[in-house]
Design goal:
200 residues; L-fuculose-1-phosphate Aldolase; 20% strand; globular; binds zinc ion
């Protein structure tokens, strides 16, 4: 795979959108998109996602997490480990992670989180064919590398997962083969979790 079109300006726009929707309060969440076969661009740590610029991204290696390109005063998010687990195991072009109120509420007392089969479930490529709609729930942990390891193990053991997961009391990560597909998956999961959080 040769270098793909630079995704950073598109991710900047998604950061603003997610911030305005309340999915990236404070400096929470991170956004990534594939740069080539071996690396992806991801938001640097500690920045407001409503005010990103293209130089706020670092290019990191999928295999080892090494920083390959970017400002020397920026660090990749600790949650890069979760993104790497997804790039290592899925056919994926982009990966979006937010911290919404609804995701925290919906992950309380549910494991897995079974998404309701309403019209919006179609956006995940699932309808009335009996495909399970259970999102895996991972335990939150200060050592994010251990969450990344748990995600990688789960995805290796489950060849056709839904394109999203939840870390309990933390937030959603969704992915897709393109940025547009990852965005559609993320928005659909947030919609469905909002239904659950409101008692559906
Ligand atoms: Zn997070």
């Amino acid at each position: 795979m040769s270098a793909l079109p630079d995704p950073r300006s598109r991710l900047v726009a998604i950061g603003r959108l997610f911030y305005e929707r309340g999915w990236m309060w404070a400096t929470a969440g991170n956004l990534s998109a594939r740069a080539d076969a071996e690396s992806f661009w991801i938001t640097a740590s500690g920045l407001s996602k409503g005010e990103l610029v293209p130089s706020d991204f670092l290019r990191v290696g999928i295999a080892d997490g090494a920083v390959l390109e970017g400002r020397p005063d920026h660090k990749p998010s600790a949650e890069t480990a979760i993104h790497r687990a997804i790039y290592q195991t899925q056919t994926v072009g982009a990966c979006l992670h937010g911290h919404s109120v609804e995701a925290v509420l919906a992950s309380r007392g549910r494991d897995p989180v079974v998404l309701p089969r309403v019209e919006m479930i179609k956006a995940l490529g699932v309808w009335d064919d009996g495909t399970p709609t259970a999102l895996p729930v991972f335990t939150n942990h200060p050592d994010v590398a251990s969450i990344g390891q748990a995600v990688e193990t789960f995805l290796r053991d489950h060849p056709r997962p839904l394109p999203a997961l939840i870390v309990r009391d933390h937030g959603v990560t969704a992915w897709g083969q393109t940025i547009s597909e990852a965005l559609r998956h993320f928005e659909a999961v947030e919609f469905l979790l909002t239904l659950l959080a409101r008692g559906f």
